[in-house]
């Protein structure tokens, strides 16, 4: 096996060797991120498209790497998943989110909700961290209703990690469920009903097309109508222009998120924004 591994090495182009080396380094360093306090959490505001008010946010993780600078999830989440570190990172993100919700509630924002992303790998673990999440919420006196679990369409199609049972447990605890990246994969209406989701998030790629391509509108316009029939609220991701906003408002889209409103910001900045209306 050793011999085979060495031979395979020759097929890598030089840039692949570099990419592999960086990946191996990051895997090692990732184990220390929580202990070394290198993770950061940002919150991107989600706006009610009727009132224009910020009513929710999404928690987005960053890695403040001592040499490489601030890393986006695209640069380390897949490594975190394949190395199992995603479980510890997910716990950390949840803890930070719960603490932020506690601060916001103390400032009078009782109904404010924050969404946390959960990937398929985080469903591999048994329910142990889920129990500790509930305990933390009780301790901080944050109702589970204030938490939205964001999962992707593809996760619902994945039968390996008992996703359905685990999602049901979150729902029984009164957390809400949001279907992320909607419109990019395959997800039938039957799934929406079966999993009883509270929100769907229209993927940014659908929103980007809005201003250019009229024919593309049919898809997300139909999604909004269907969602409302099923009592599901729709969040549009990646709104960048006033034109996109106007079209989405007209189509009855409930909520929006994107650089037009705000980039992901720190908890302190979020609290400031909410204070100033
Ligand atoms: P996502 O869940 O689809 O999150 C939305 C992404 O779109 C975020 O990227 C956000 O910064 C970006 N975004 C928001 N508005 C705009 C806009 O107007 N224009 C553009 N161009 N981009 C916008 P980010 O923070 O880099 O996160 C990327 C992905 O990483 C997320 O996609 C999510 O799948 C994953 N992720 C982030 N945090 C976590 C986490 O704590 N756990 C897990 N498992 N995954 C995470
Ligand atoms: Ca998300
Ligand atoms: Ca997305
Ligand atoms: Ca995503």
TrEMBL record:
Q: Which residues form the EAL domain?
A: 23-277
Coiled coil segments of this chain: none
Shown portion of the whole protein?
601 to 877 of 877
Upper lineage is: Bacteria, Pseudomonadati, Pseudomonadota, Betaproteobacteria, Burkholderiales
- What is this protein called in UniProt? EAL domain-containing protein
Give the source species: Pseudoduganella danionis
